[in-house]
């Protein structure tokens, strides 16, 4: 990632730290050639294990857990419904533009966001290039055109240092006023 990029505080912090740990980057949401709004990072050969998005940060938007088949995403939603725990289903099931994943988003008891997803693509090829979405492309949000809920943009998991202390949150470095709400965490 060129040093001249302007990035939101959380995206920059998450992206840089994940890269230092050996994560690859499968997809990004970008403005012009100097603006990074979101990054999907992976360690295994799926689209992502973690996602970092714009806004106040550093913060983690969600963890990604890949399943093999789409019926497993639906089964997850069915299990939560059957247990009367539907309040933990935050978004979905649906289909993303970013990663083309079929998904459901859950909140664990502590409020952390977890995505159960499938139908992504293989990232194990060492020549895998990052797919770059434009922040103005509406299909990145939801492939089927479903509305995205407000918590998607305003809530995320704070980042702790190695001693377990929450890192101070700073405002985004980008002027987000001209960007419509999208899967990039911007409002």
General description of the model:
- It is a single chain.
- With 187 residues, the chain is of the alpha/beta class.
- It is built from 3 helices and 11 strands, in the order βαβββββαββββαβ.
- Strands 1, 2, 3, 4, 6, 7, 8, 9 and 10 form a 9-stranded mixed beta sheet that branches. A two-stranded antiparallel sheet has the order 5-11.
- A hairpin with a 4-residue loop joins strand 2 (24-30) and strand 3.
- The protein is globular and about 45 Å long.
- The chain starts with 5 loop residues before the first strand and ends in a 29-residue tail after the last strand.
- Mean pLDDT is 77; it is low at 1-10 and 173-187.
Secondary-structure-based class equals alpha/beta
Coarse shape: globular
Number of DSSP E strands: 11
Strand content: 25-35%
Distance between the termini: 25 Å
- Report the mean per-residue pLDDT as an integer: 77
Residue share in helices?
10-25%
How is the main sheet built? 9 strands, mixed
Low-pLDDT stretches:
1-10, 173-187
What order do the SSEs take from the amino end to the carboxyl end, as H and E? Answer: EHEEEEEHEEEEHE
The number of helices is 3
- Please give the radius of gyration in angstroms: 16 Å
Would you spell out the secondary-structure blueprint of this structure?
Blueprint: E1 6-7, H1 9-20, E2 24-30, E3 35-42, E4 50-53, E5 59-60, E6 62-66, H2 70-82, E7 89-95, E8 102-107, E9 113-118, E10 131-134, H3 151-154, E11 157-158
Parallel strand pairs: 1-3, 2-10, 6-9
Antiparallel strand pairs: 2-3, 3-4, 4-6, 5-11, 7-8, 8-9
